[in-house]
Amino acid sequence: MKTNRKTGTGTITGIIKRKASRLAWAAAVALCVLNVTPAQAQCTAENKAFKSGEKVSYNLYFNWKFIWINVGYATLTTETSTYHLRPAYRFDLLSHTSKKADLFFKMRDTLTCYVSDRLEPMYFCKAAEEGKRHTRDEAWFSYNDGVSHVRQRRTWYNPQRETEFMEYSDSTCIFDMLSILAHARSYNAADYKVGDRILFPMATGRRVEQQTLIYRGNENVEASNGVTYRCLVYSFVEYDKEGKENEVITFFISDDDNHLPIRLDMYLSFGSAKAFLKDVQGNRHPMTSIVKEE
Is residue 276 in a domain? Predict the structure, then answer.
């Protein structure tokens, strides 16, 4: 994986649809793309952060004008497994809208991936039912003579469209939104300085895209469980046609050996959206980032 460091208006239905979809995507990204270090940009790594049986849950909200609305929840589970007879870890991320939000926009997203016991990406799938749209994105990873290959496919169930295929190769590692988690959580961000930019490629199931994160420093953050955590703060940014930088999401990550996302702030055209940590079970390390309990 290549990494580089450099020193409105609208109906409530439309707003819920856009924000619920972005919340699901952001929950996946936050759990998967943080704390990447250039010194360890490779496909294999030692697991130092998680163990089988870990389960993390979040409450998802968005703001419409001055009203905060609970749109649902997200959960991430980790288990030992096998993939094509090889020992593996399996990750499952589920995003689910509440009954109230279902009246405007129904979302049932399930992301699944397998990585080897050496944390190499093996397989990724995102099954998405968002409103009337139902799709399935998949990515298969392979390795040959130091080159990483990914074969991707999008299947359309509703509306029915022609299946899309895409292949990509790189001399460095290619990750998806969940397999990067296995690497990122074991890394040490102590070498980063405020303002450092982190660039990385990610397979989405349809394409491979370059993403940009900026390290912002430290901040104490209160989660949905009433606990305040010491967090590392990162910004996910995008660039417009003129090259202007726009902040899309701010991630608050526990400053301990677990590196768990505590809160996500999303900046959208029609207000803001947030995801708050609700509960964590089966974490490998003590949550030493806690600075105040309820």
Answer: yes
Give the residue, 177 or 25, on which the prediction is more confident.
177
| Cβ 91 vs Cβ 178: under 8 Å | yes
- Count how many domains the chain has: 1
Any domain includes 6: no
What's the pLDDT score for residue 106? 78
CB neighbours (10 Å) of residue 130? Answer: 18
Q: Is residue 236 part of a domain?
A: yes
Task: Tell me the residue range of the domain where 254 lies.
Answer: 12-292
Q: Is the pLDDT of residue 207 over 90?
A: no
Q: What is the pLDDT of residue 219?
A: 94
8 A C-beta contact, residue 127 and residue 205: no
Q: What is the DSSP string of 16-54?
A: HHHHHHHHHHHHHHHHHS-S--GGG-SS-----S--TT-
The full DSSP string for the chain is -----------HHHHHHHHHHHHHHHHHHHHHS-S--GGG-SS-----S--TT-EEEEEEEEEETTEEEEEEEEEEEEEEEEETTEEEEEEEEEEEE-HHHHTT--EEEEEEEEEETT--EEEEEEEEEETTEEEEEEEEEEEETTEEEEEEEEEEEES--PPEEEEEEESS--EETTHHHHHHTTS--TT--TT-EEEEEEE-SS-EEEEEEEEEEEEEEE-TTS-EEEEEEEEEEEE-TT--EEEEEEEEEESSTT--EEEEEEEETTEEEEEEEEEEES-SS--TTEEE--
How far apart, in whole angstroms, are the C-alpha atoms of residue 226 and residue 187?
A: 27
- Decide if 4 is inside a domain: no
